[in-house]
What we know:
Blueprint: H1 3-21, H2 27-66, E1 82-86, E2 89-96, E3 101-105, H3 119-122, E4 127-131, H4 148-163, E5 167-172, H5 174-185, E6 190-196, H6 214-220, H7 222-247, H8 250-260, H9 269-276, H10 284-298, H11 304-308, E7 315-320, H12 328-337, E8 341-346, H13 352-355, H14 357-375
Helix pairs in contact: 1-2, 4-5, 6-7, 7-10
Amino acid sequence: MSVASVAALRTAGSGRRCGAGSPQAGLNGGKFLMMQRRELVTKAGIALSVCCSMASAATATAAAKGSAQGLEMLPFKADGYNFWTWKGRRIHYVEQGAGKPIVLIHGFGASAFHWRYNIPELAKKYKVYAIDLLGFGWSDKALVDYEATIWMEQVSDFLREIVKEPAVLVGNSLGGFTTLFTATEVPELVRGVVLLNSAGQFADPNKPAAAAPAEEEEASNPLAKFIVKPLKEAFQRVVLGFVFWQSKQPARVEKVLKSVYIDSKNVDEYLVSSITAPTADPNAGEVYYRLMSRFMSNQSRYTLDRLLGKLSCPLLLLWGDLDPWVGPAKAARIQEFYADTTVVHLQAGHCPHDEAPEQTNKALLDWLASLDARSKPADPSLQAV
């Protein structure tokens, strides 16, 4: 029963007691009771109407959350879907559909569940895999040195051992960088690359050649090795420990997501939970420290121009032009650098596949169809004799 209903009943009950005990409990008392009863009926009717409206709204909201824009959504599973053992570590992945393979690779802090609106739709025509990178999602939080090469090797081995045929790699943000790196290292396993607001930097032509790695300098300088480095690491641990604690709070995650989703209707409990749940792992804090203190600082070692210079397959850019982090200028520069590039501009933020899944799915499926047509051998009957 709603608060309004309880309040109405209490008011009516109080009125009846006053009427019965009054010395004027005749006609006037009867009128008073009738007025109170009418008031009760009115309030109860309003309360019932409000309750029905709230129930209808809740039902509509639940339906919307279950299928944004009418799209089928990958069911959330707290225990994950499938697991593959790679170098002694459990790697989580989702597998659906049949046909030529597509591998989806999430961005920093996300997981395979970030492709919730893409997997079911793409699986109608293709064999779709979505993998959790080591250290993220439902994959093991391994205490290793996180370098870009570790995820490239993971995806390469996934293609060899699980997919077992050339695939199209699709990556968002950090996943886009990993996708591009993988395609340049094992071109025989990749027939196409799709980047959605990819991470990575172009080399600065005005910047002098990279100096010797910090490790080499520290090895030759006892003061840096035994005093400066330990103090620096201790400070970093304190700062990054606090940042990690803050960044895994659901309210904080929701706030950050809404800052990069221009249309935030898909920033819901499903999405927030898929990001915060893995942070409960005992090793999650240490993994975060290693990612932020090592991988991020060494990212410039693998520049986009260096990787694009080695790429040999068709490239599609699905770019959220309203991304506050990675704007359309980067997509334009990639297209200028690599000739075999198709660009589709989307009115979305950093994660267009989840913010605007209908547009993303259509653009991706259209490009995949053109890629399939390119790879088909010519019809002998149409060839000149």
